[in-house]
Amino acid sequence: MAAWRVWPGSPHPLGATWDGKGVNFALFSAHAEKVELCLFDRAGHQEEARIELPEYTNEVWHGYLPEARPNQLYGYRVYGPYDPAGGHRFNHNKLLLDPYARAIHGALRWSDPVFGYRIGSPREDLAFDRRDSARFVPKCRVVETAFTWNHDRHPQTPWEETVILELHVRGFTRTHPSVPEAQRGTLAGLASPAVIDYLVDLGVTAVELLPIQAGISEHALVRRGLVNYWGYNTIGFFAPDPRFLPGDAIREVKTAIQRLHEAGIEVILDVVYNHTGEGNRLGPTLCFRGIDNLSYYYLQDDRRLYVDVTGTGNTLNLEHPRVLQLVLDSLRYWALDMRVDGFRFDLCAALGREHGEFTQRSAFFDAILQDPALAQLKLIAEPWDVGPSGYQLGNFPPGWAEWNGQYRDTVRRFWKGDNGLVAVLASRVAGSSDVFGYRGRRPWASINYISAHDGHTLHDLVSYDRKHNEANGEGNRDGHEPTFSWNCGVEGPTDDPQINALRDRQKRNLLATLLLSLGVPMLLAGDEIGRTQRGNNNAYCQDSPISWVDWGHIRLEDEELRRFVSHLVHLRRRHRVFSRPRFFRGEVLSEDGLKDITWVTPAGVEATAEDWRNPFALSFGYVLGGAAGEFFTTGGQRDIDASFLVMMNAYHGDLDFIFPQLPTAMAWEALIDTALPTGIAAGGVFWRAGEAYRLQARSFVLFIDRSTAAPARGRR
Questions:
Q1: Domain ranges, ordered by start, for the chain
Q2: Rounded to an integer, what distance in angstroms lies between the CA atom of residue 380 and that of residue 400?
Q3: Is 705 a catalytic residue?
Q4: Spatial separation of the C-alpha atoms in residues 439 and 387, rounded to whole Å
Q5: Is it true that the peptide bond before 99 is cis, omega within 30 degrees of 0?
Q6: How far is CA 622 from the centre of its chain?
Q7: 713 pLDDT band (50/70/90 cuts)?
Q8: Do domains 15-141 and 585-705 have the same CATH topology?
Q9: DSSP 8-state class, residue 142
Q10: Do 313 and 306 form a contact (C-beta atoms < 8 A)?
């Protein structure tokens, strides 16, 4: 092995840091007895040097190599007791990833030596394994972080004006005909002109990317010939996943973000800090477990066992200051070096637990609130985990938005025809103030969605009554239930034109409700063009056409749906009455006597408490008063918007909906009618108080007040 000079170096910053002259290596481990830095050849196959880090300061092992350069591949061997009952699982025979590695080279190859214990032993994880794992595990790579950002600026779209598209980098670009073949499935493909033009035309203001941090596929999946496609099995919180990087270059991440910013589109990362890919006590030793198991993970009283509130086998111990530092340093790296605009935190309730209980005052929440680099970003919580009292919707601190699963379920159930939901639905489309209206939180705290990566796509929601996850190899036992889906009469694909027409109408109903509700709408990529997963509602392991957006087989009806979605998004962005910065009060707030919101029944009268309690009601409407919008221009003047009327009918029959009598005369022109094949009304007809509109079965209609422009007798 070659001789390398090694100097003491510094305990800060953690990780491998190139300073232009050499590389500083620093690794936290409170309980290790010795740490060796292992250097590898350019292919990562041959270990060329093994260097004992010479210094130990404040529980950090460190050393400086003046001859080391960017692209150097490395890993660690950490010495200490192998005592699972005491919480320690050190095994210096296992090559370990640096938790702060900025780049990862190669992929995990599942083999018995990647486990710290002897596979097949009757003593299970108590049996120490002496085989070297180096040739089976990925290596870390020293990086040069310099990048020319030019005049890059964060779009800084206000929360209330945000429209999110959730997408998987690979799935969204894998089959796109206008993306160069070599870039398909990568961040370079996402940054291609054709894809960015598509996003701009659709009108979304942000993309929320499923995890792009480095992860691994579970052993059980690989044995079945599958992969962890979604990526919720992270092993490197700083390193981009190599599968998204053509040529293994992290500059592609920055280039993609830069080009999206140029188009006015923010980038939100879906991040997984609640657990790691090492799994339970029988999982592999790849990083944290071998560096300092007792510090990095929540352990039970029997320290051989892991606390698991994530359903993955382990939970990161954010009560330890160094583990909390790891998470915050990772977030700051992506925010400052990569310039992302926000984060969506997977199973975020787990991050707010202290001594096993969720609290708004956890160290994690307090630290983010006080961090100038993070506090102003868009922060989104998936507000649950699988631990005790794990459903915490509405209980996150001010400044956070939350995935509103109640919105999803209520809207799905209403449009499939479930009874007794009009009062709850009214609250959901009005921003869910019953959930979020406290401590100065605003309507944007509710991330409204109908479908997401986890569950049925929009097309499948109206095409299947049941989940069909057979391809996952788990006997169709996996996946979320109940689905609150409705197949409109036939399970799966059909040639029946009436059923297909009804399905298309139901899609328009769900999308119109979503995009015109108060709160932040989130679309699932591909829903706008009828993407199907063939009934699979848990395609986490399907890197296949099941999960990819099929750009090559788009029906005419799907293209019309895309135009409908784009029309709705741009309508929402033009009229701020749909994205008010404050919750509705149901009060008169303008000189014309019109309330900010007026709830009406099909009889054209204002809804009463008795109407809300009607268990059989499947139809209702509301008027949004534009003059009471509480919007202000930069000059401090009130920004008056138009007024709108919504009619919703989830009943299987048509009905006459009477236009309400309001304090000021209105002339209503239809803009949206989901009973039409395009969903977009022709306009030119004006309706006034007391007149009846034939509201078709299972339809959503939006009217705009044209009283200042309508002729005195506008009706045809």
A1: 15-141, 159-424+445-565, 585-705
A2: 6
A3: no
A4: 26
A5: no
A6: 31
A7: very low
A8: yes
A9: -
A10: yes
Lowest mean pLDDT among 244-248, 288-292, 652-656: 244-248
What share of the chain has pLDDT > 70, as a percent?
97
Predicted confidence at residue 591, as pLDDT, reads 79
Domain 585-705 listed as CATH 2.60.40.1180 = yes
CATH of span 159-424+445-565: 3.20.20.80
Catalytic residue among 166, 341, 382, 558: 382
pLDDT value of residue 714: 37
Q: Is pTM beyond 0.70 here?
A: yes
SS3 content of the chain, % helix, strand, coil (to 5): 25, 20, 55
Residue pair 288/278 in contact (Cβ under 8 Å)? The answer is yes
- Tell me the CATH number of domain 15-141, given options 3.40.50.300, 2.60.40.10, 3.30.430.20, 3.10.129.10: 2.60.40.10
Give the separation between CA 269 and CA 602, rounded to whole angstroms: 43
What the block records as the tokens of 351 is: 């991050």
Three-state SS across 259-273? HHHHCCCEEEEEECC
Query: Would you say 406 and 428 are in contact if contact means Cβ atoms under 8 Å apart?
Result: yes
Residue 470 a catalytic site member: no
Q: Which residue of the set 47, 98, 241, 346 is catalytic? A: 346
Q: Give one DSSP letter per residue of 220-234, joined into a string.
A: HHHHTT----S---E
In this structure, which amino acid lies at residue 244? F
Identify the burial level of 307 via C-beta atoms within 10 angstroms of its C-beta, where 0-12 means exposed, 13-18 middle and 19 or more buried.
middle
